[in-house]
């Protein structure tokens, strides 16, 4: 028996996306004031002016989303699952914040019932902000990771994540051994990598809490399971960097602690990189790995100004992360705005247009994670989307109703949009929020 052909839906909306990279292509933004997206079986089959798509598909049922903005779902490339309940620990630099705010909460994830509740809070926060794909920094506990993967599967989130491993300088409950890191990682990869919408990311917390032995165990997983992703932190805070220098006297720099272990490549995403050397930037570019820029976290923890210009000049790929809970919330609109502010304020900063912000929040993440079926509305990609539709009477609603162009409305969405403006979210054509 053949299965019935799914009926397509034609979405009518003001939509914007960046099918190209605006840092390298001047006309990267595609804005359709009255656009049409034909979606069948969760995949975009046609996109363009509504009148054209309608003429070619006169019988497709229409879902009318006019009045707001339809954007590709946001892609958060650095966000910590166990930290959703400790957002807002303001006023501390990184290492003190880890000791006093983050790590005590991360130790509670040993309790599976607690972890399940955190997984629900966390994924609810992501989807509620319009995020449809995330590279998630996991928990130190394998049971908590199973709980996360189960919740991601239940909700339909696209998630790339893995067990966080460390064997020094955190607290005893969070430490493991190289052998256990390998064995638990292997079991999780076999259960979850490529299952539905989930992928695995090998995740040493940072070199400060990782011996060479545990980095080697991570590299063994990467070798034994091609296709898994790699993520960690790098060059976030000057005290952290000095400590890593002291711990790895043979390494050329912070990046080299990962590079020597064989952990840097096309599927590596390193969070922060606020204080890189030129050598580190050139190695990152050569390996085509990504720096995940987390501007709210960099501001809240006082880590510093992200040298975007130096990354772009060196040819390093850059994406965006919320870094909850060092960051201040899940909204990539807010991260985009904070990136814009910081580039405005720093000498030699890069002026960021609405197209740059949209790219950083969407396609840049798809490129970082090597997920070419996500990140834009080009035909052939999954229908992962967020509909921003502010409540009547709000300032954003007023701007939307009077904006001179979709691009101006997009700028306003970054300037004042919040999760309260997220009316509906789709992943792979499935509605995961709103109706
Ligand atoms: N921002 C941030 N940096 C880190 N470096 C190591 N762990 C963390 C963390 O949880 N948050
Ligand atoms: Zn982080």
**Beta strand count:** 17
Q: Using the alpha-carbon principal axes, give the shape.
A: globular
Q: Which stretches are poorly predicted, pLDDT < 50 over at least 5 residues? A: none
Provide the β-strand percentage band: 15-25%
Please identify the structural class as seen in this structure. Answer: alpha/beta
Determine the mean pLDDT. 98
Total helical elements: 16
Instruction: Give the C-alpha Rg.
Output: 21 Å
Give the topology.
Blueprint: E1 9-17, E2 30-40, E3 43-49, H1 50-56, E4 62-64, E5 69-72, E6 74-80, H2 94-107, H3 112-128, E7 131-137, H4 142-155, E8 158-162, E9 164-165, H5 178-192, E10 198-204, H6 212-224, E11 229-234, H7 238-247, H8 254-259, E12 268-272, H9 278-287, E13 290-293, H10 295-300, H11 308-314, E14 317-320, H12 332-345, H13 354-361, H14 363-368, E15 385-388, H15 395-402, H16 406-416, E16 422-427, E17 430-433
Parallel strand pairs: 1-4, 6-7, 7-8, 8-10, 9-10, 10-11, 11-12, 12-13, 13-14
Antiparallel strand pairs: 1-2, 2-3, 5-15, 15-16, 16-17
Helix pairs in contact: 3-4, 4-5, 5-6, 12-13, 12-16, 13-16, 15-16
This protein binds guanine (GUN) and zinc ion.
Zinc ion is lined by residues 78, 80, 137, 233, 271, 323, 326.
